[in-house]
Each structure stands twice: as structure tokens, then as C-alpha cells.
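Re: that chain you flagged

S.,

Sorry for the slow reply, it's been a week of failed gels. I finally had a moment to sit down with the sequence you sent. For the record, here it is as I used it:
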Amino acid sequence: TLVTLGSYLDIEMIEHLIKQDFQGENDILFIPYNPFSTVKPDWGQNIVLKQNKAKEIVLKHGYTHLFSVEADVILPNFSLRKLLEDDLDIVAGVYRLHSHSEGLEGQLTGFKKKIDRYEAIEAGKDFNWGDIIEVDFLSYGCTLIKKRVLENIDFGIGLDAEFSMNCKNKGFRLFCDTGILCGHTDHYKK
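Prediction finished late last night. Pasting the C-alpha cells below so you have them in one place:
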């Protein structure tokens, strides 16, 4: 499994990431998402460029999965192992959105499509903690993606939303493992 993350490197996040790989069976690739790049000045384009580079590495070097971890997500111990055991094409841990997520602060990162909108999943209503549930949209801040998905899907400028829609359009199902509740560092409030 190739593990990627980017942006600023939070010490707490790094410590939790290292705990995922206690036997050394995974390779960890740090890909900084520099929003001030002179090559790609738009931060979204920059993230897409780096996600597609990670995809290229997975496909070229025989990795089985891509584990995408955003730099502000704090992983519970053994998250990667649990997601691998779930054995799904696309499965994500959940975390709560932070203050820059207009109108969504505190909501979980799995969404179900309603008639005219997407709604965040809610414990007790859509799932019980520990359930693995199918969703229509997910954030890939803690997401494990099998190689066969990457062979058919590109990361695009719409980031999480476009990735989710492309996967659904190609027949891939999206899941959230609610047994993996990650922390989410809110640098916007600092």
C-alpha cells in the first residue's frame, strides 16, 4: 500500500501515521500540497496534480492500494489495517468537517444523496458507530482505494466530489467505516 499525504506536516498526524505501519509493510510518500506553487497556482489543481502523481506511482510500481491521508487528519491506531481488512474497492474512515466547511462544520465526511442535495450521514439515523455503510459521496482525507479503481478513475479538479461521482459513474461503490473516527485539526481557527 502506498500512503500519501500532503500540505503542512502536523507532528500529531505524523505520529499517528507511523503507528499505522508498525511492521514496515507499507511505503509512505509525502507529497506536499503547496497552494502557492508557481507551476500550479490554484490549490485545487495542485492537489489534483499530486493525487494523480500518487496514482501513477501505484500503477507503475505494483502497489495494491493507495491510502490517501490529508495532513490535518489524525488517524486512530490501526486505521489502515482495519480499512485493508474491510476489503472494499473504496472505503474511508470518517471525521468531522472543520470551520472552513461553510455550513457543514461538525458534520461527518460521508454523504447520502437526497432528492435535491447531499446530506451528511448521522449516527443513530443512518448508522450505528462501527457500521460500514454505503454512501454517495465521501471525503478522501482517510480513504483506501484499490488499484483496480485507480486503473479506471482520474482525480479531477472537483476533488472529493468529482472523484466520488466518477467512481459511482464507473460502477464503483463508496463506503465509510464508522468504526474509524479520525480527528481533524482545525488550522483555520488558529
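What I noticed first: The mean pLDDT is 80.

Talk soon,
D.
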